[in-house]
């Protein structure tokens, strides 16, 4: 299980004359702040989804339907250090847009990767 997000954070903005104003080299938050904030918000939302019965657990995850098992899972995840990886784009903003576009403008599994389907199972090829 490897939850992660991709985000684009601008290193500046427009001034009152609509000219770009760069925030400088070290404009962003310290990594520890990002880590703790993301972990806290992610875990709070996960807990809220569980409390509102919006999560489904199947197979080996089925035990987490139980309140105490789920609470133990939350405690285990919350105790881990979450490490964000932040960096400037190598080739500028356009390369970031092209990279993210590969993931945001396509379907998760294209039809040609689906090898077989039954009423309860889908078999597909993976890279």
Automatic annotation (TrEMBL):
Single GO molecular function: DNA binding
Any Pfam family matching the protein: Y2_Tnp
GO term, biological process aspect, one: DNA transposition
Ranges of residues in domain Transposase IS801/IS1294: 1-127
Source species, domain of life: Bacteria
Name of this protein: IS91 family transposase
Native organism: Agathobacter rectalis
